[in-house]
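User: Here's a structure from my thesis project, written as structure tokens. My advisor, Dr. K., wants to see whether a designed sequence matches the one we expressed. Can you design one independently, without my sequence as a hint?
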């Protein structure tokens, strides 16, 4: 069997990934499958941290567009990520893997506050660490939180899980002729205005030379292949 290409990874999951074909909320079958994929990677001896979004429950940007105060909407979105984190924690622990939920907004009854050294220690002890509540600040996306946390815990790579098999020059659903990039530089990503991750997250990764792999979470075995360094999805690098 191939050796893992990375010692420590940060997996970025969107909230939408957990709702499957439902229009809202969490599909337990999807959460179970994601948990099984994470447990499989963990069994390879790879340390796994997860940053999860909340778009399946609430999106601050969308609420802001309808007249809600943006900061209020973003805080509500952060709380939605905690709901997802607890659901994912439960699903992972049913696979026999120890897990900790760590939040940027303190809520000690359900999760630990984010303390960088403690989070790293959990990883070193073989626990999956789920990082919720984004950065704890409004106006920052969970993509940016993923980039920030990846650097704080010294992850080797950011694995961005999506519903498409990589980065395209345009939305492949509405533009069938869109070109797929197997590899793209940070600068090209920014210059072309690609929307897979926000510019702040890409810039953070570029400044710290942290590679990003964008892949389809729904394809069985993709997370394992990405963790082993096999060609999958699209690589964003220098």
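Assistant: Designed independently from the structure alone:
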């Amino acid at each position: 069997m191939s050796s893992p290409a990375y010692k420590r990874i940060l997996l970025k999951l969107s909230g939408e990934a957990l709702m499957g074909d439902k229009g809202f909320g969490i599909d337990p079958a999807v959460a179970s499958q994601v948990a099984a994929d994470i447990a499989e990677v963990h069994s390879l001896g790879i340390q796994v941290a997860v940053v999860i979004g909340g778009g399946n429950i609430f999106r601050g940007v969308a609420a802001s567009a309808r007249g809600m105060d943006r900061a209020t909407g973003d805080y509500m979105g952060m709380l939605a990520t905690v709901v997802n984190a607890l659901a994912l924690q439960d699903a992972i622990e049913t696979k026999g893997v120890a897990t900790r939920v760590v939040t940027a907004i303190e809520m000690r009854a359900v999760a630990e506050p984010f303390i960088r050294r403690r989070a790293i220690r959990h990883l070193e002890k073989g626990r999956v660490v789920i990082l919720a509540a984004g950065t704890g600040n409004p106006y920052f996306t969970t993509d940016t939180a993923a980039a920030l946390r990846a650097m704080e815990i010294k992850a080797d790579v950011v694995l961005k899980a999506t519903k498409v098999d990589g980065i395209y020059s345009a939305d492949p659903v509405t533009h069938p002729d869109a070109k797929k990039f197997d590899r793209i530089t940070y600068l090209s990503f920014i210059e072309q205005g690609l929307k897979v991750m926000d510019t702040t997250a890409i810039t953070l990764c570029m400044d710290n030379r942290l590679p990003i792999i964008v892949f389809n979470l729904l394809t069985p075995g993709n997370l394992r292949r990405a963790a082993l360094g096999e060609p999958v999805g699209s690589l964003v690098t220098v």
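When you compare it with your expressed construct, this may help: The domain at 8-237 is CATH 3.40.1160.10 (Carbamate kinase).
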